[in-house]
Write a structure and sequence with these properties.
single chain; mainly alpha; Helix Hairpins; two-stranded antiparallel ribbon
Length: about 70
């Protein structure tokens, strides 16, 4: 996520705490930015987890795999 979007999230958070609050347009913008930020964090975490390998005492190295949901 671009730094400008993170800065905008922070601006909206400060404004929401202030006396004037947020307009309905700003509330929907904040919600969209938050969703985008959360999806970005999830995508980065999955990428990190997909690159983890487990090394066993016998020297075998196996990639860590995600359990498939049933």
């Amino acid at each position: 996520m671009e730094q400008s979007k993170i800065d905008r999230i922070n601006e909206l958070a400060k404004k929401a705490k202030s006396f004037e609050g947020l307009t309905t347009e700003e509330e929907s913008e904040r919600a969209a930015l938050r969703r985008e930020y959360i999806e970005d964090v999830k995508r980065n975490l999955r990428a990190q987890l997909d690159n983890i390998e487990v090394e066993y005492p016998n020297g075998e190295v196996t990639p860590l795999k995600r359990n498939q949901k049933k």
